[in-house]
């Protein structure tokens, strides 16, 4: 038995509702009235059914339609110093967008921090939006703040052969889990000079002018970390960028249910206003989902040349370039 799975046999699995990097209701199990079959209820901020109609191969069901519990297998469940870590695997036979996926859940709300499919790179979630950033950047490494199990890194490395990724993750155990269950070891072997893992608090790193771009995906206790609502944080991040560099950040949205009960849209708006104070008039927002249950990704540097951007992107990602709008907050 390896160091990660020691002691797992004593932990009895209790089905948990699942959300995608946003909180779930804090109950331990959710059952639906479809016959007597228990399901995992899902609440995704990035909804496949929100993708424009010209996107092909849309899933038949929404992520929040639920997955029958007997089609979800628990591969690991334990606590680290920083997280309550669970690794789930969804059966390929599930009639759901996550069929065949492995999911990394962290902390009590059951947030999904990473998604990995064995035979495909794209996830039809905001990780795909993150993979559109490299063509907008000057030469240089891209930092991912909130690396998780490496979903964004995998997409960038596979779709953009010239990109170099520095992944920042606070919890070293999460990186161990990523290597064992999410193929990170294989990715590191395939790209030995293109991916570097940094263990520690990304806010504490003093690396000015080092990065061509920053991907920010920092959540705790079911919502964006509070530092992101402080303009001083974004000023510090701005100093880490090379000339012409950009920041792309997952800012959450109304689908977020924080542990303290705060509204996810309120937190998102505060974060966007803080970002806009440091990058006045240069913040754009891409909205996913619908008006009552949406989420957003923000981008600094102003709106790019959309047609040039699309030409530089792999075909399955090009439609995202049309979805950005200036932030008017």
Automatic annotation (TrEMBL):
GO molecular function per UniProt: methyltransferase activity; thermospermine synthase activity
Gene3D superfamilies given in the database record: Vaccinia Virus protein VP39
Origin: domain of life: Eukaryota
SUPFAM superfamilies named among the record's database cross-references: S-adenosyl-L-methionine-dependent methyltransferases
Biological process, per Gene Ontology: methylation; polyamine biosynthetic process
InterPro entries per record: SAM-dependent_MTases_sf
The entry's keywords: Methyltransferase, Polyamine biosynthesis, Transferase
This protein's record includes keyword Endoplasmic reticulum: no
Protein name: Methyltransferase-like protein 15
Organism from which the protein derives: Actinidia chinensis var. chinensis (Chinese soft-hair kiwi)
